[in-house]
Give the backbone structure.
Amino acid sequence: MQYEAHAKVNIFLKIVGIRGNYHELFSRFMLVSHLFDTLSFVPKSSRMPFELVGDFNCALEQNTVYKIFQTLQKHGFDTEIQNVMHHEALHVNKRIPSGAGLGGGSSDAATFLKMLNDRADLKLSAEDMMALGAEVGADVAFFASGYTSANVRGIGEKVEAYDEAPLDLDVFTPPLACDTARVYRTYREYFLQFINPSLAASMVDMSSEALLQSFGKEELNDLYPACLQAYPELRSYEKEGWFFSGSGSSFFRMKEK
Ligand SMILES: C[C@@](CO)(OP(=O)(O)O)[C@H](O)COP(=O)(O)OP(=O)(O)OC[C@H]1O[C@@H](n2ccc(N)nc2=O)[C@H](O)[C@@H]1O
Ligand SMILES: Nc1ncnc2c1ncn2[C@@H]1O[C@H](COP(=O)(O)OP(=O)(O)O)[C@@H](O)[C@H]1O
């Protein structure tokens, strides 16, 4: 069986405060229906306790799927998941570009958590998986929620379904990977003074379509100016009528009807 780990875009992303090294935000997350990695269990070819097959630009220990394995071990599911990973390797067919603001690593993490929950019959609810996922990355709770559109708050751990049909989206990713931590650091250094929580609050109740019709990318995404400051070459890829997702580098727009 193959599982799909879908990409997301941030329809809006407004910073409303700081929490230690993290930033508190209001954001609308929406899954992208046509863009996903596929994950499946395949027979093992080694004796390693955790075998991962796929093209990644990071070490196994840095991989979000490995961090899910470790997190489940830490929470007492050691025997159950070792029984699975003793026989199976995890295969990931990566199609979501990395460092693209599309949440690929977080989506893989949430999907692998669901796979282990199914295969090892861990009996975790969506809420349990959201809490476990949040230990691996701020965005994982949204992907574990199963919602296609949601308002996300806190540093990413508070997820509330937003009732709307998913939009049909075009996504364009420039050949530029953006480091999320670097973009947030740049935001804090240069843009924190421009914080506007009342504008953020006014966006929460608007449909995604109305948001994209009412605001431009600079108003919708507080990380856009920070990303331009950190990666000036990004400017050469911006196009009229396209919006900016998360910490970049992807742009998106509603498909023309
Ligand atoms: C910006 C967003 C928007 O959805 O995602 P991307 O666009 O990168 O996919 C998220 O806030 C990213 O979430 P995620 O990529 O899961 O972040 P993490 O791995 O937990 O953290 C990476 C780094 O980003 C910073 N970080 C992350 C989340 C947050 N609310 N405030 C932060 O300041 C921290 O410096 C942290 O060390
Ligand atoms: N499963 C994974 N898929 C992709 N990248 C991963 C994964 N696990 C860890 N990473 C690391 O996280 C970085 C950010 O990747 P990704 O989550 O796809 O981007 P973004 O944070 O922009 O949404 C990658 O460059 C890579 O080093």
